[in-house]
Design goal:
Number of strands: 14
CATH class of the largest domain: Alpha Beta
Largest sheet: 5 strands, parallel
Distance between the termini: 91 Å
Radius of gyration: 24 Å
Strand order of the largest sheet: 2-1-3-4-5
CATH superfamily of the largest domain: Response regulator
Order of helices and strands: HEHEHEHEEHEHEHEHEHEHHHEEEE
Amino acid sequence: MKRVLIFIVASLGAVSFGVTGHAQEKAPYVLGFESELTGAYSNLGIGTKRGLEIALEELNAAGGVNGRQLKAIYYDGETNVAKGLILAKKLIEVEQSVVLVGFTLSPLVMATLPMLEDNKIAMVSTAAPEILWKPTKKWLFNTVGSQRESSIPQILDLMKKKGAKKIAYLYADYLLGQTGEQVFEENMKKMNMTPAIVEKYQFASHDVTPQITHIMSAGADAILITGLTIDTAAALKNARDMGFSGIIMCDYAIGTPEFPGLAGKYGEGIVTVAQKAIVAEDIPDSDVQKKVVVQLYREYTKRYGGYNQYAGHTWDSAHLVAEALKKVDPNLDPEKQADLAKIREQIRDNLEKIKGFVGQNGIFNYSPDNHNGLGPDCYPLVVVRDGKWRLYKGM
């Protein structure tokens, strides 16, 4: 009789422990991710996805937030705005995301704005053009430095110091290039210089021979290019093969491990601006960002080889979202619709209050009037030397 009683008590204890253990497992906070994981611009999306994965591993290993793990749902937009919109809707309505991250293509981000408003969900985008966050959009945040402050002025200033007098601007005809064209014109005027010529090419084009012909005919002695990795490498090759011997520098979208290899001999000496992590080992120890940029750089290169700065964009996104979630009511359950709506709104409100966050792209100080949060010169000048990105240290 005693043996039977002991068995029953032990069994009940096991059942009780199992039920209690299960009850303590909390539903995760879901981050809905979309980017270009296949196709011509997969280097953007793959780096973006890997950066998010690394960040979430770090955060979850440290216990997650509010006793919940952070989980990402990954979708491939295939550089197709129409498909990206469908996926965004699915991430919001089906996957029950608390926030959206990634979203690298600026035309897609612009197209999602009504959806963000209607569903009252924040997006922390990795698309660059400042038109996305200037003027401020209530539900849209950004992690990438501004061309107006962080990229084009620095590059033009260096071109002028190197003796350029007739600078041409060549850009891909999409939001990043269109914004860059405006910034280029404004800064040339501030520098009391007249552009030699402004030329554009179709987004994702790999042949800009007609545009280079026009630039050379205009007598340009320097070219500033705003484009993505593949088309910028192609433009460099076109220019040099056609005999252009002047200065060529590039806007900040080319900071990928693939660029030096794609550009080959044409990329040697090319200057741009980029995240500090792309040249992590060159950053001085006194820099407040040194610890985080080296940490991401080493982890990324250990796993994948050359560092891709698009990884830094989503590393920042994940950690900024985690900071916002820390101040969300921990009793709210993301699996309950009413609670999910409150979590989404609290994330948005809390993002807006983040100050002094040390990230990969710089020091973030969000506010109700600034959903980018990065100051001028958040990126250093970098250069391709011996097929690798290095910190630019002088003329």
